[in-house]
Amino acid sequence: MSMLYLASGSPRRRELLGQIGVPFSTLPTVIDETPLLNEPAVDYVRRLACAKAQVGLASLAAPGAAVVLGADTSVVLDGRILGKPQDRADAFAMLAALSGQTHEVLTAVALASSQRCEVRVVSSQVSFRPLSTAEIEAYWVSGEPQDKAGSYAIQGLGAVFVADLHGSFSAVVGLPLCETAALLADFGIPCWQRPSETVQ
């Protein structure tokens, strides 16, 4: 069976892979995440997920039968990608824009081996209730928005802002488990292996 590597330092993605009983080792990678000029958001997440997987694969001394998983999640509002906030003002602007609105969360997952790279993209619609300035301030002070796309975490304190979700919860968190399991199966890696085999 192929050895799976996760090209991400995200604890959320580690937890999600562990949830479906897949053994893996982490392989954090760094790539340039700057969007290309006029690049559609769906192309952006697809490109980054595949790039992370391929860079991770290239970093292995002996890739052999290794398979590397890369993923990217973006919050998109009116066609604009909302990345991680630069500072408090940036986070305030994002959360104020999301307040009372429905936005799209795009997550791409890619698997790369020495033979191929396959990518799946999942779109989810997330609706926020109206947020007050005091709530946004308190949320910023919590520290949670500082390293999150769109300045919020649906699996954390930011869950109280979410009035409705159409799509995949796990994809919004960072890894669409249904599509990931199908991709893994295509590469000969089954889910539901013994929990003790999973490497965190």
Specify the biggest β-sheet.
Answer: 7 strands, mixed
Summed up, the helix count is: 6
How many E-type strands? Answer: 7
The share of residues in extended strands comes to 15-25%
**N-to-C SSE string, H for helix and E for strand:** EHEHEEHEEHEHH
Question: What is the rounded Rg?
Answer: 17 Å
Distance from N terminus to C terminus (CA atoms, Å) equals: 19 Å
Structural class: alpha/beta
Taken from the alpha-carbon principal axes, the silhouette is elongated
**Helix content, binned percent:** 25-40%
Give your account of this protein's structure.
- This protein is an alpha/beta fold and 200 residues long.
- It is 32% helix and 24% strand.
- The chain contains six helices and seven strands.
- It has helices at 11-19, 41-59, 88-98, 133-142, 169-173, 177-186; strands at residues 4-6, 25-26, 67-77, 80-82, 102-112, 117-128, 162-166.
- Helix 3 crosses helix 4 (133-142).
- The longest helix has 19 residues, at 41-59.
- 37% of the residues are buried.
Topology (SSEs and partners):
Elements: E1 4-6, H1 11-19, E2 25-26, H2 41-59, E3 67-77, E4 80-82, H3 88-98, E5 102-112, E6 117-128, H4 133-142, E7 162-166, H5 169-173, H6 177-186
Parallel strand pairs: 1-2, 1-3
Antiparallel strand pairs: 3-4, 3-5, 5-6, 6-7
Helix pairs in contact: 3-4
